[in-house]
Design brief:
Order of helices and strands: HEEEEHHEHHEHEHEEEEEEEEE
Radius of gyration: 27 Å
Largest sheet: 8 strands, mixed
Low-confidence stretches: none
Mean pLDDT: 90
Helix content: 10-25%
Oligomer: single chain
Distance between the termini: 64 Å
Structural class: alpha+beta
Length: about 300
């Protein structure tokens, strides 16, 4: 009994030690962003503008009070009111990403789901734009000048303090809602623990429903607390001590973009991303290049508040 046929014995010639799967499974990513939500103001495109920067004009209409005249002063002349105005610049930057794949690498693919080929790489670039938007958003709101300094963990009191600061912002004029909070996942877990520790059930967290996550709110949406929509993001910045999350209302953050006009036949638009195929025939290599133009800025500091807690 020395000639049994075994799988191990067939390796090299008739069997493989490992066989790759037909399907390429996707690793975890974080592409949730607020680009198409009411919490981000689109201020325009730089196409045909003559500049890479859009200056957002602001005026405090309706903030001033009437002068009052009565009795002996009813004939007095009213004094002209000085208009309070301001402006904020939103500068657009070039974003780019590229992959290069050989013909041999492409043609030897198994043809399963998510196989590595030029077209799947183009889709990956378009998805990466969403991640970049989320990262740039987090970097922007980390600069809100108003801040709530939490402790070693994020508690209900910290969240409520941020909410109340928006309610009394701009000399108690208050920020119009609805509000959104973008937290680091660790902060969100800490907030949930703090809510669960409350007694009496006066304050209730409303978790996201499946329809919300799969619909317009996106997979980063976790639910609502105090009427504030809560999202988590892995792109929350920190200063090596504290996370720099934020809560804000509409009008706090704005973004501008642009679309390049590339005069070649090997281009396609995938949302705000322009994909260009660059062929190096001598090397049998196809380069997949993604172009995007984007800029974000805080439009009004009083409309947002930074939420900090230990990392």
């Amino acid at each position: 009994m020395a000639n049994e046929i075994t799988a191990f014995g067939l390796q090299t010639d008739l069997r493989l030690a490992q066989m790759i799967s037909q399907e390429v499974r996707l690793l975890i990513n974080d592409t949730s962003n607020l680009r198409n939500s009411p919490y981000m103001d689109y201020v325009g495109s730089i196409n045909g503008l003559g500049s890479d920067t859009i200056r957002v004009r602001q005026a405090a209409y309706g903030r001033d009070l009437f002068s009052e005249f009565s009795d002996a002063t009813e004939k007095d002349q009213v004094t002209e009111t000085a208009l309070t105005d301001a402006s904020v610049d939103v500068a657009v930057k070039r974003l780019a990403m590229a992959f290069a794949i050989t013909d041999m690498a492409s043609m030897t693919g198994l043809g399963g789901a998510n196989e590595v080929d030029p077209f799947r790489l183009a889709q990956a670039i378009a998805t990466s734009y969403d991640a970049s938007f989320a990262s740039m958003t987090a970097s922007t709101f980390s600069s809100f000048s108003n801040a709530i300094a939490g402790g070693t963990s994020l508690a209900v009191d910290d969240f409520m303090n941020a909410y109340q600061q928006l309610q009394t912002a701009s000399s108690n004029r208050g920020v119009d809602g609805p509000f959104v909070a973008v937290l680091h996942p660790k902060q969100f877990n800490e907030l949930q623990d703090s809510i669960n520790a409350l007694t009496g059930g006066a304050l209730v967290f409303q978790p996201a429903l499946g329809a919300d996550v799969m619909g317009a709110k996106g997979k980063g949406f976790k639910g609502s607390f105090l009427g504030v929509d809560i999202y988590t993001s892995s792109y929350i910045t920190d200063d090596s001590t504290n996370f720099k999350a934020a809560m804000w209302g509409p009008g706090a953050i704005g973004y501008a973009d642009g679309s390049p006009a590339i005069m070649t036949s090997e281009t396609m638009s995938m949302g705000p991303v322009t994909i260009e195929m660059d062929r190096d025939a001598r090397k049998a290599v196809t380069r997949v290049v993604g172009h995007a133009y984007l800029g974000l800025s805080i439009l009004e500091n009083d409309r947002g508040v930074r939420i900090e807690s230990n990392i």
